[in-house]
Amino acid sequence: MRFDRRQFLVAGAGLATLTLVAGCDTPQVATSGPNAAPMGEEAALTALIAGLGAGLGAGNTPGVDAEEAARAAHIALSYPHVLAERYEITDPPLVHNTKVNMGLRPRGLCHHWAQDMETRLAQENFQTLDLHRAIANADNPFRIEHSTVIISRKGDTMFDGVVLDPWRNGGDLAWSMTREDKEYRWQPRGEVFDYKRSREAKRRELRQQVRAARDL
């Protein structure tokens, strides 16, 4: 693929700026097709999802259905490649973020990946699995905020689930148990939203106090 000078300059500037802000490595871009997930990886992810909840002592909570685990793993590994084509991914994630923010690409920010992955997985109407949305770095001013979808056994929290993060590798799924993710410390999205609302309320109150003091 050939790039003109304008594209090169935009990509280079975006990568340099955002890498400094994010404080994380830039992963490689996916080049494989929608059915290119290695069978060994799919089997490993299937086994991990199928075993969710084992040893938690959850009483009468049923385990994960093996067929649902296999279906979830297949979708989680293959669907990001479909999204990568829709998003027109040609660059590492941070550069693509810049292009989306500049209007040069339609979608592809982390919350787009999370939203579209959640929507696709929800279409399966799983009976033994739950989907969760999570956010990382909301309270870290030195790294960009990141969003993902997490899958767990039905009734369990996201902390006992598996992170399904296609943004991190530009369409090649990054996955691990939530507590074992070495790159991100995940928090429930609802809690993050509550934190942001509380923070903004405090800021508004402070601004009002400052204006009142000036009027004295």
Layout of helices and strands:
Blueprint: H1 5-22, H2 39-50, H3 66-87, H4 93-101, H5 110-122, E1 129-136, E2 146-153, E3 162-165, E4 174-177, E5 186-188, H6 189-215
Antiparallel strand pairs: 1-2, 1-5, 2-3, 3-4
Quick summary of this structure?
Helices cover 47% and strands 12% of the residues. With 216 residues, the protein is an alpha+beta fold.
Proportion of helical residues: 40-55%
**Termini, distance in Å?**
64 Å
Percent strand: 5-15%
Sheet with the most strands? Answer: 5 strands, antiparallel
- Please give the order of strands in the largest beta sheet: 4-3-2-1-5
Task: Report the principal-axis shape.
Answer: globular
Count of DSSP E strands? 5
What is the number of independent domains?
1
Radius of gyration: 20 Å
Q: Please tally the helical runs, counting DSSP H or I stretches of 4 or more residues.
A: 6
| Helix and strand pattern | HHHHHEEEEEH
Query: What structural class do the secondary elements suggest?
Result: alpha+beta
Keywords: Signal
Protein name: Lipoprotein
Signal peptide: 1-22
